[in-house]
Design a protein that fits this description.
Helix 7 packs parallel to helix 8 and helix 10 runs parallel beside helix 12. Helix content is about 30%, strand content about 10%. It has two domains: about 35 residues, no CATH class; about 425 residues, TIM Barrel (Alpha-Beta Barrel). It is globular, with a radius of gyration of 22 Å. It has about 450 residues and is of the alpha/beta class. It has an eight-stranded parallel sheet. A two-stranded parallel sheet has the order 1-6. Helix 6 links the parallel strand 3 and strand 4. The protein has 14 helices and ten strands. GO terms for molecular function: beta-glucosidase activity. One of its GO terms (biological process) is glucan catabolic process. It comes from Cutaneotrichosporon spelunceum.
Length: about 450
């Protein structure tokens, strides 16, 4: 009998005996029988439900998700380029049409681009960053990576070479006691049309079934490599799919979540091996209301799944007009929906930025809504004292950002599983830099050392 046939027979026997059901079938093809990888504890050894939905710990994960809060930072702009995080890297090309990683490879000499990327990868994040992250009382890093680091089979102009730096990051994290969530930040065709997907424009991930096939192959590579790793404890299947574009991309993404889960949970299934990974598998809310995902990929069919939501207040004219007190109360208003969600919830991206003033934040050549230089926007104020290195930030502005930080941390921990700040550092936008925020004093050296207790902020 094949492994899948054995799985079907085993499932029927388990159901008949009253044992909790194995993961459900998709079509006529069952998931493989759950067999723990050699040398690992039984995936059903710990069924405690501490601070979370039933079954979160049914997989013998290598970090106590659901029992200990995630406190982390994103390593943005390192292995997936974003012009607003490292504007100098883009300015040095001398070509204003180079706006993302696709054009970085397409619109300049290949050797020149490769050399620039090598210098960037070697210098932007180093072991000392991991040392500082650990010293700041954080326990996780979220590591964005592009699919092209492992697959450019369709002839995309991306440069490869990032994979060894993933290995380097994992080694540094292990040395300094940090855990790693590897996040696939991009999909073939682009899942959102944002520059952080590698290619700015419109999303085309959903236009070709082969795009999901290719992305699942990358998921499989990562899941095999880190199935029972003590440092890489979570895998994000895809960052920020823009499901608001319509039902087609929402349906395509929803199916990818299911298929991607199977690939990540049973990475050796195609070789006839039913061993499963111990990874926490993370899916994005895709900009849908959290309630949209209620009862999606839930126990007992799916185990150890988390929902990642992102929260910013700066990408519309209306949001940019909010006062500081309004911003704080908007965060407070997240308590109810976060607590009401039956899913394992983490806030994978957020910041204390209250403007879109960071250079190239809206991509190169676009300007800013806040100062009226973005097409269709109306000026609200000057960007001069709202971003940059922070040396000219007023004491009032820094004090607000401290309260904004404290409020968000407490809401995300009290009503969710924790958070990852975006981002660890930025070349010249202190309002987005955790590292620079600590230096300027609006981010505390200990993230749970609250100057502004939640009870004094949230009405």
């Amino acid at each position: 009998m094949t492994l899948l046939a054995v799985a079907r027979t085993t499932l029927i026997a388990l159901l008949a005996s009253g044992v909790a059901a194995m993961p459900t079938m998709k079509g006529d093809v069952p998931r493989p029988e759950q067999v723990e990888a050699p040398g690992t504890p039984s995936p059903f050894a710990n069924t405690s439900n501490v601070d979370g939905p039933v079954g979160m710990n049914r997989i013998a994960m290598n970090w106590p998700y659901g029992q200990q809060k995630i406190r982390g930072v994103n390593l943005g702009g390192w292995l997936v380029l974003e012009s607003w995080i490292t504007p100098t890297l883009f300015d040095q090309t001398g070509n204003k049409n180079i706006i993302d990683e696709w054009t970085f490879g397409q619109l300049q000499d290949r050797a020149k681009a490769a050399a620039a990327l090598k210098r960037h990868w070697d210098s932007w994040i180093t072991e000392d960053d991991f040392r500082q992250i650990a010293a700041a009382g954080l326990n996780h890093v979220r590591l964005p990576i592009g699919y092209w680091a492992y697959d450019t089979s369709a002839g995309e102009p991306y440069h490869q070479g990032q994979a060894p730096y993933v290995d380097r990051a994992v080694d540094w994290a292990r040395k300094h006691g940090l855990r790693v969530l590897i996040e696939l930040h991009s999909a073939p065709g682009s899942q959102n049309g944002f520059d952080n997907s590698g290619r700015y424009g419109a999303p085309h991930f959903q236009d070709d079934p082969q795009n999901a096939v290719r992305l699942k192959k990358v998921v499989n590579i990562l899941a095999k490599k880190y199935a029972n790793d003590q440092t890489v404890t979570a895998l994000g299947l895809l960052n920020e799919p823009a499901t608001f574009y319509g039902q087609n991309i929402l349906d395509y993404t929803t199916q990818f979540w299911r298929d991607g889960y199977d690939t990540a949970r049973w990475p050796w299934a195609e070789e006839g091996n039913g061993a499963q990974s111990n990874l926490l598998i993370v899916i994005s809310d895709g900009f849908q209301p959290l309630s949209h995902w209620n009862n999606f990929m839930s126990e007992p069919q799916y185990t150890s799944v988390a929902i990642d939501t992102h929260y910013y207040q700066i990408f519309s004219n209306d949001e940019l007009r909010w006062t500081w007190p309004e911003r704080l109360q908007k965060v407070c208003s997240k308590r109810a929906p976060y607590s009401a969600s039956p899913n394992r919830l983490m806030v994978g991206e957020w910041s204390v930025a209250s403007t879109d003033c960071a250079k190239y934040l809206n991509t190169r050549n676009k300007g800013h809504r806040y100062d009226g230089t973005f097409a269709g926007s109306t000026r609200i104020g000057s960007c001069a004292d709202k971003t940059g290195d922070g040396n000219n930030f007023s004491s009032q502005y820094k004090d607000f950002m401290r309260q904004f930080f404290d409020t968000q941390v407490q809401v995300y921990e009290n009503h969710g599983q924790g958070w990852f700040y975006w981002t660890w550092k930025n070349e010249n936008a202190a309002d987005w830099s955790y590292k620079r925020g600590m230096e300027l004093g609006f981010i505390p050296r200990n993230p749970t050392s609250y100057k502004y207790p939640l009870a004094n902020t949230c009405r």
